[in-house]
Amino acid sequence: MSGLFSLIQMPGSSHTGPLPPLSEQERQSAALLQKHVDVLAVEIGPRNIRRPPSMERTVHYLNRVLSALGYMVQHQEFSSYKLTSVNLEVEIPGRLFPEEVIVVGAHYDTVSNSPGANDNGSGVAALLELARLLAGSSPQRSVRLVAFANEEPPFFASNTMGSAFYAARCRARKEKIVGMLSLETIGYYSDEPGSQHYPFPFSFFYPDRADFIGFVGNIRSGQLVRRAVKAFRRHTRYPSEGLAAPSFIRGVGWSDQLSFWREGYPAIMVTDTAFYRYAHYHTPADTAEKLDYQRLARVVSGLVPTIMELARH
């Protein structure tokens, strides 16, 4: 049992009780997050290699938003299944330790039959909003924001994922990635008792309401999980939970952090826990109106100082 506590014990305390009123910045973020998800899930719809025009429209939208924020967008093109795909990257150079890098990423593709509002329109929208909120910042370490192609099947858990190509290039270049955060399905919340589920035996230790954001990593990334949770809790009055667990536990490695683990980099997933709370995961019913943009805005607001702390030497 003591071994289990070492996986779930996190610094600080999760926020409890009523949420504070939204700040003006958070209200603005909520509107922009909803706009981005509407473009991705309503205007564009399912986004995957079986629908090349949808992927092209998505890349065009991401490029346009990031460029309008003043970033120089870098494209990493690669070939999978005889089709060219694109990762998009922007970087905020570190002022003291530019060679040390924090990567924040989200995949923009969906499963074949889903508009992917939550998986992963929510993560991509958060990435774009983080780019806006971090623009003009001066982190000690460099911060990269990356939109990955091809996380979903048939690429999932293989070396053909967009993040796998990206992480492998980082390793080949001997880049010092000191931490990676994967924004994965982060837009659904509920206050209903019994709305949150877990793999055994974690239901005995975590809340049964789906009202929190989760920080999840493998054992080797445990220090990064704890640093992220500590920073988020210090700056944010919003419920949060953390877990550093073996990667064989169902869901722990189910996103782009897996690609970075395989290259030896510490990486974690920021998530609403997906199928452990969201009944519409990977279905045509994963639609934009089901997301809670105000709570998503609170999460994004908390991630800004979290990322800045992680980017501190």
Q: What general outline do the C-alpha atoms trace?
A: globular
Low-confidence stretches: none
CATH topology heading: Aminopeptidase
Largest sheet: 8 strands, mixed
Please report the number of helical segments.
8
Q: Can you tell me about this structure?
A:
The protein is α/β, with parallel strands linked by helices and 313 residues long. It has one domain (52-310): 3-Layer(aba) Sandwich (Aminopeptidase). Helix content is 36%, strand content 19%. The protein is built from 8 helices and 8 strands; from the N terminus they run αααβββαβαββαβαβα. The protein has an 8-stranded mixed sheet with strand order 1-2-4-3-5-8-6-7, sandwiched between helices. A hairpin with a 2-residue loop joins strand 1 and strand 2. Helix 6 packs across helix 8 (293-310). The longest helix is centred in the N-terminal third of the chain and has 21 residues, at 24-44. It starts with a helix and ends with a helix. The mean pLDDT is 96.
Which helices and strands appear, and what pairs or packs with what?
Blueprint (H helix, E strand, L loop, with lengths): L1 H7 L15 H21 L7 H17 L5 E7 L2 E10 L4 E11 L9 H18 L6 E8 L13 H11 L3 E9 L28 E5 L4 H14 L4 E5 L12 H6 L4 E5 L21 H18 L3
Parallel strand pairs: 3-4, 3-5, 5-8, 6-7
Antiparallel strand pairs: 1-2, 2-4, 6-8
Write a concise synopsis of the structure shown:
The protein is an alpha/beta fold. It is built from eight helices and eight strands; from the N terminus they run H-H-H-E-E-E-H-E-H-E-E-H-E-H-E-H.
Index terms:
313 residues; alpha/beta; Aminopeptidase; 8 helices; 8 strands
